Amino acid sequence: MVRRAILGPSEEVRPQILDTHMFHYYESLHFMGYNVRNTGFEMVLDVSVPEQIEKHFPDILHPFLERNGLTINDIDHLIFHPGGKKIVSMVENLLSDLGKNVDDSKAVLRDYGNMSSATVLYVLDRFMERNPQAGERGLMLAFGPGFSAQRLLFYFA
Q1: Burial state string for 15-52 with b = 16 or more CB within 10 A and e = fewer than 16
Q2: Tally of domains within the chain
Q3: What residue numbers bound the domain in which 111 lies?
Q4: Could you list the pLDDT tens digit for every one of the 157 residues in the chain?
């Protein structure tokens, strides 16, 4: 089943969503989350988060692509939530041999820092400035509380 959404009215090439799916690692509530305080939200981020992402990265990536009949080689662009220097470095090491880069993620982390999973939208905005070509595919990844990874597959039309 193909699900599509137009992210904005335009005559320009825009990403259209093909599929989304959330990955949950259920025994990880202590890794990432928020404590609600009288002064606002306090972020909880365990030092082992980069290791957990690396450990589960194949489970996060490959089944989602397979359910769409794809492999990582079919993905032209990676729009990745820059959750911190260690996480960006780890993903870069995992995917650089496949010709995937996380340069936009590194730039957003440098310029704005990690603003939680919504930071991936800053990466998408930066990426869109380069005017991707029709027919290209992208994969967006963002990490969130507990330990979850939101995956979004899109193509440009």
Answers
A1: bebbbeeebebeebeebbbeeeeeeeeeeeeeeebbeb
A2: 1
A3: 16-156
A4: 444 445 556 677 778 899 999 987 777 666 766 788 999 887 777 777 788 888 888 999 999 999 999 999 999 999 998 888 988 998 888 888 777 889 999 999 999 988 888 889 899 989 988 888 999 999 999 987 767 889 999 998 8
